Amino acid sequence: MESLLSLSFDYLSCSDASKIRKGLKQLEGLLAQLCLCRSTNPIAADRRRSMISTGSTAQAPKELGALKDDPAFWEFFKLQEGFECNDGQNDLLIIATLDLLQGILLVHPPSRSLFAREIYMNLLLDLLDTSNCPAIQSSALLTLVVALLEQPHNTRTFETLDGLLTVTSLFKSRSTGRELKLKLVEFLYFYLMPETPYTRTASAPATAIGQRSPTKRNGGYSQSVGGAGVGEGGELAGTKSTEEKQALLGRYLNNVEDLVEDLRGSAPFGAAVG
Question: What distances in angstroms separate CA 73 from CA 9, 30, 76, 96, 236, one per listed residue?
Fold first, then answer.
């Protein structure tokens, strides 16, 4: 059974859709053997074994109470518990990946534009789910900060995907620890800051964004608050003011005014808010 499970998981880890389907069929067949009534008739037993490859589920299901007397079920149960215990290793891999991603996005800011796409932003938001451990949530939150840093298009995607609801729900959750709540407050301070996209400088390598679409590129390594892209009201195209973001955040959290006042008074990120 262990070999079958390992082979099935190998197939499920492939990018080939046909192998993924094969892995799912193997798992389905294994669960069918465990959960469907068995017969002492050898012909029926042969038919049951062939069922694994055909996917047929014509046999009647067992009662759940009957599973406890099945040695095969207990073998599967033990293997599944062992697989569950490997989650800690998976968590460490996720955290290590997020740490590397933070560094890449800091060293190469144009790569942040990937998170203007919903599929990639959703990956970060999923990691903030309460089902994940606090270490993953904390690392995902920091990665989100780097992904949004001076990238207004990414921030708009974050808002569209109910990112504010995700963050504030985690903040309100009773299961969220004090340390993580402090980091969530810091994130909200960061979110409320005025937005300024990157612009390229002469020293930034031209090859860094040579393949990117101009509509999704927010530039290179320095800030600019003037020039092309500035609207009639003085706001850069695609950006929102602190007041606009305060109104959005106020839908999910009370006392946002206090956060804004504190932000204006203390300038926690080194820049005053007007």
Answer: 19, 10, 5, 35, 62
| Separation CA 27–CA 19 (nearest Å) | 12
Q: Could you tell me which of 244, 273, 139, 253 has the C-alpha nearest to residue 188? A: 253
Which of 11-15, 63-67, 174-178 is predicted with the least confidence, judged by mean pLDDT? 63-67
**CA-closest candidate to residue 148, choices 6, 245, 266:** 245
Closest Cα partner for 143 from 158, 160, 165, 159?
Answer: 158
Give the separation between CA 33 and CA 92, rounded to whole angstroms. Answer: 34
- Beta carbons of 144 and 154 less than 8 angstroms apart: no
* Distance of alpha carbon 209 from the chain centroid: 25
Torsion from C-alpha of 206, 212, 216, 220, nearest 10 degrees? -20
Report for 40-49, 73-82, 117-126, 222-231: range of highest mean pLDDT: 117-126
Residue 175 has pLDDT above 60, yes or no: yes
Please say whether the beta carbons of 176 and 133 come within 8 A: no
Instruction: Look at residues 99, 102, 97 and name the one whose alpha carbon lies nearest to residue 115.
Output: 102
Q: Dig out the tokens for 267 from the structure.
A: 């300038």
